[in-house]
Design a protein that fits this description.
243 residues; alpha/beta; Glucose Oxidase, domain 1; two-stranded antiparallel ribbon; 23% helix; globular; KFase_sf; hydrolase
Length: 243
């Protein structure tokens, strides 16, 4: 038996968790973008069933390549295949977000996590668990707007991203909301942290789900999407394999 076959059989015995929302025409999404359109081109009455899908790259659970915000940044096709299969760390701040939907994950939260679970290793994918995905499939609940049309959603702090990227050497990050940045800072300054993150030449996953089923450390994440030519982003099927 080859080493790869042994690894395959071992992985088959583990629990696998789907980290992607199902893609539908009524899926919550960034409001400036069009919804999925799907139609039948041929049906089984014609002898075979063929569908046509029209969907933007940043729809549903999706990946953002650096080129999404950064001139000259990498396209999806330029991300190394090995960087789409990574150790997974989940920082759980769901309690804090339940108490304060404007919560921002900072460097101190990461240090507190490491004090309990050990240092985050280089080459890791770090996910911010907020349990925001439990608001799915409501567009209004996902956006959580106030009377002034300001979005009240959690997000990453700049100090946390700087620490993870430059002091821990992570490969990518992910979260359950539409944006990297929390809602209030976005309303005041725009998506500064998302620009910063992609400027560092790493990718991110947005609108993740089922992070509540994962351990803090020890799991793996596998990310797949079509082999697009020069795509800035794409819906993904992200799967976690538990230890």
């Amino acid at each position: 038996m080859t080493d790869l076959l042994k690894i395959y059989q071992e992985l088959q015995e583990k629990k696998w968790v789907n980290l992607s929302h199902q893609i539908r025409e009524d899926s919550p999404h960034f409001p400036a973008l069009p919804a999925l359109e799907k139609k039948d081109i041929f049906t089984l009455k014609d002898g075979f069933h063929v569908q046509q899908f029209s969907v933007v790259g940043q729809y549903g659970t999706h990946i953002d390549a650096p080129i999404h915000f950064v001139e000259g940044g990498r396209w999806l096709e330029e991300i190394e295949l090995k960087d789409l299969f990574l150790p997974l760390v989940v920082i759980d701040k769901s309690k804090e977000v339940a108490e304060n939907p404007d919560f921002i994950l900072g460097k101190q939260d990461i240090l507190d996590f490491e004090a309990e679970h050990g240092q985050i290793e280089p080459g890791t994918f770090v996910a911010f668990r907020s349990d925001w995905s439990k608001r799915w499939p409501s567009q209004s609940a996902m956006r959580n707007l106030d009377d002034q049309e300001i979005q009240h959603t959690p997000g990453w702090g700049r100090d946390a991203l700087e620490f993870l990227i430059h002091e821990r050497g992570v490969k990518a990050v992910g979260h359950e909301t539409f944006d990297t940045d929390a809602g209030i800072p976005t309303a005041e300054h725009g998506l500064l942290n998302e620009y910063y993150l992609l400027e560092q030449d790493i990718y991110q996953l947005e609108v993740m789900t089922n992070l509540d089923q994962l351990p803090a450390k020890g799991a793996l994440i596998s990310i797949s999407f079509p082999n697009w030519h020069q795509a800035s982003g794409s819906p993904v099927r992200a799967v976690s394999i538990l230890p």
